[in-house]
Structure formats: C-alpha cells, structure tokens
Amino acid sequence: MSIGRSAWVTYWAVGWLAASTGCKSDALPWRNTSASASSASAGAAPALAPKMREEVHGGIRFLVLFSGGADDDSPLVVGMHGRGGSPERFSRIFHDFSGRAKIAFAQGPSKSDQGWAWLPRAESFDDAKFVAAFDAAERQLWQAITDLSHGRRVIVTGFSQGGMLSYVLAARHPREIAYAFPMGGGAPPALFPHDHAPTAPVYALHGMSDDVIDISLARETIAAFREQGAVAELHEFAGVGHDMPPALRDDLLAHIGVAVDAESARAAPTPGAPARGGRTGSAAGVRDADAASKSLR
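^ thats the sequence. predicted structure below, dont judge the formating
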C-alpha cells in the first residue's frame, strides 16, 4: 500500500477540520428556472425540478430524479452528498445527464451546517467509535437502498463522505452493486475488503490537489481492492482540489452512462430467453457484471 496507517490519521484530522465548513462542490452552478432561483433567494426550501419526487426508505430521505424518460423500473443510480451537502445540491451534477435512469439522491441523517452529514467528526480512521459509527451509517443506508431498489442492482456514487460510503458499499455488496463511482473519498482500513472476498467494480475519481481528503487515501483504498482481485481504477485529476469541476463531472457522467446502458441491456430479454429483470443473485447476473466491468475499464 502507498502510505502507512499514521498518514491516514494525519490526513483524516486535517480533512475533518477543513470539511467542517461544508463541501465546496455543493455550490455548483447549474441551469435553473427563475422560479426556483427566486425561492432560493427568499430562503425558501428548494423547489423540486420537473420529474422529481421525494421518497423515504428506512428512515432515509431520497430526492428522486427520472432522467431520459425513465420510470420506476429503469436502472437505479443512488448518489450520496458530502458533509454539509444536500440531495438538492448534489443533484445538480446530473443536470446534463441524458441516460435513461432513476436517480435517487440520499440525504444524510445528521444535520451539519447548512446541510447534512453521514458521519461524525473523528480524530482518525483508527478510532473504534468512528469505525462503529461508519459501520452503522452504511448499514442504515444499505437497508434504505434495499427497500428502494426492489431487488434491482444499483449503481452508486458519492462525493467526500458519500465517496467513502460508496467504497464500503462496493466492498460489502458485490452482487447487489453493479458499479461504484466514489469521488474525493477513501475508506477506513478496518472496512477494506479482505480475505479475497468478491467486491463490486469501482471507478474512483479524485483531485490530485485535494487538501481535505488527500489523494493518498484514495490510492491506498484502490490498492486494497486490487489486492483482493477486484476491478478497481482511480482517475486522478491534476490541479483539482476537494471539488468537482466540469472535467471530473463529465468523466463521471460518461462512465455512469455506460453503466446505465449495461444495466438496461442486462434487463432486456434476449430472443428465446426469459427476461432477467435486472435482479440480483443469478449466474447470468454474475456474467453480466463481468461484461459491464470490461466495458467500463
């Protein structure tokens, strides 16, 4: 692995101090209507865009977007914001996404600054209480996703704390997660994949100038996945900090688009064969996961 455990402690402490004011990317510019802009300037709750609705599963609020003419049976993408973020702000990343997908933006359970958080502050990744809290957060989120998905495989993505959760979801749910796209995150070593257990494929994105969560953490996490034989890749962006500039977002959406298309093809019946319905746990599903992984590499 690229760095030692002590480096995780240092970067983690610095990261929480910097992140306490919220993620810079939550202020992403996007095309907006005059009505929603007026509501925001007046301090009102953000107006939902057309084809969006709210759902609550397992105590977690989701803001759901139907992209490209999608419906409730379309491929499912779940996105997780960073500390101090919100589903409304995180959804802006997808304003140009044209893939046919149901995209559900999850809201962290704890209030943080002007938004929400998934994880508590901690001194280090080695802190037993933090690892326990991380474990509990992932389990609550996964229960909510399971309720939301109705047996479909899920594509997950997230930034910062959401990126951390994306890594752990991929490690823990290899059959149910079709692909994971973490951004600006890393996983605690205690929650790395181990014992050569299968994992979902991972394509991570991270700024090389990130001063909140150092890219060394992402490199070590990806190395841990690869050591277990997983399909795992890290795209590093020179000059990018703890943020999601256009180049990173374009790369993310392009790869998610390929994953969505693969899930659509997987769910479509082939001539002379019964429909597979995109459900998990079948031998066909494992073969399709391998094919999708190769197409995204």
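The domain at 5-21+51-264+279-296 is CATH 3.40.50.1820 (Rossmann fold).
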